[in-house]
């Protein structure tokens, strides 16, 4: 994500751009309305978010020029964070395990909710690509072994590193 100004109009179901901003955006402002300076927008966070999550949402929206679809992804990430925190509080209150009617220990549903919320949050943040440092040129190393029928060829150095020779 660059810190340049972004278009705040929300796409309509037909794919056309609407001049009406998304519901969670203050209609009297646009992203970086102060001439493209970060931190100059007056976007308010969705009201259903927890106060600390809403403050984080606003800080991210102020620091980056996010388009309407990015703000929706940011909102989904904030909701996933809040849901995970709710599950964490329930686990703290009730414990991670309960005993079922057959007297067998079972993981509470909140354990799965917390796990799924963490995964969703991490993926949504990755999707927004808010990291300040660009990824290194190499990126992820190639998969060794590959899919069946698509084996990766290893050069001499790779084979020595892996101890295959």
Describe the structure.
The protein has 165 residues and is mainly alpha-helical. The protein has one domain. The protein has 4 helices and 4 strands, in the order E-E-H-H-E-E-H-H. Helix 1 (51-63) packs antiparallel against helix 2. The protein is flat and about 55 Å long.
Q: Report the total helices.
A: 4
Number of domains: 1
- The dominant shape is flat
In which order are the strands of the major sheet placed?
1-2
State the end-to-end distance: 44 Å
Mean pLDDT: 75
Secondary-structure content class: mainly alpha
Tell me the strand percentage band: 5-15%
Helix content: 40-55%
Keywords:
mainly alpha, 165 residues, two-stranded antiparallel sheet, 4 strands, 4 helices
In short:
It contains 4 helices and 4 strands; from the N terminus they run ββααββαα.
